[in-house]
Amino acid sequence: VNEHYLFHGTSPTGALGIIQSGFDMSKAGSSTGLMLGPGAYFAEASSKFDEYAKPDELSGMRAVLVCRVLCGNMFRALGKPDPAMLADRGFAAKYDGILGDREASV
Prior knowledge:
The chain has helices spanning 12-21, 46-52, 83-87, 89-94; strands at residues 3-10, 63-70, 74-77, 97-100. By secondary structure, it is of the alpha+beta class.
């Protein structure tokens, strides 16, 4: 089983919504974009999830969720994947998610 504890940075309002209803894929990327296609984005390093933890307009507070993530069979992206490849049904049948290789993008 390819299971990990990973971080998800968001706003306090976003965190409450996720806690109450789970991850809503229709809202994925609504405030940050979708570099690797639609889905929930997680990070293993605080320097990455902090980029996505948006401050609350009134308090300036940010939120981070520690999530238990079942990753399955991952495709390792060495850069931004081709959108046509992501849309291909064969790709979706073979992989459960995309791992953005942070070492390759440094």
